[in-house]
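[Solved] Which block belongs to which protein?

Original post:
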Amino acid sequence: QVQFVESGGEQVQPGESLKLSCIVSGFDFNRYAMSWYRQVPGKGRGLIATIGSHGDDSYYSVSVEGRFTITRDNALNTLYLQMNGLLPNDTAVYYCNKRWMTREDENYWGKGTLVTVSS
């Protein structure tokens, strides 16, 4: 069974850092490009960072580029997101999933982890 377990979210002040983790099970993690997504209440889930299956390339949305870093440990089936210089606009629930999803894959999401940036 496909599972994503995100963790590491908490409330922080602007400018602080957090590192999120996502433990993946149920498919061959090291075969897939993986991504972090985030969702603000009342809005859709948006893609913010992607990493290749071997971890040798990464891509970021304009809103996080230069502040966030996506990494992965294929031996641990774990995806990470280091977030530096957090802004109030980064407040959202963060999810991990495959970058390229089939219709079947779209049925599988974790509970996400809430990041709140507020002074």
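(Second protein starts here: sequence line, then its structure tokens.)
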Amino acid sequence: QVQLVESGGGLVQAGGSLRVSCAASGRTFSISNFRMGWYRQAPGKQRELVASITSGGITDYADSVKGRFTISRDNAKNTLYLQMNSLKPEDTAVYYCAARAMYRTTWDYWGQGTQVTVSS
């Protein structure tokens, strides 16, 4: 059974930085074989894709976070990261990691989420 467990969320002031992590586990599950992504959902809003990284290392970002957020992964640790700099109050949300097989169009696995709150 595949598990994605996020950690590292918390409260930070505007302009600050935070790094969230997503530890993956499962008997044969390796993040290196999947497209991995970070989503977020703010109260009253739809869940949105913030950043993704392919198995080949190609990254993509939402316009709202370009230049401020960096997605990366450590295949040896089977862990995905999202480094968030220059945080804004509008970045406040629950952040979820997700995994998708490269040939699929829907996300197969989700974590439980970690809360990030940015105070002004």
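Accepted answer:
You had them paired correctly. Confirming on the second one: The first strand starts at residue 3 and ends at 7.
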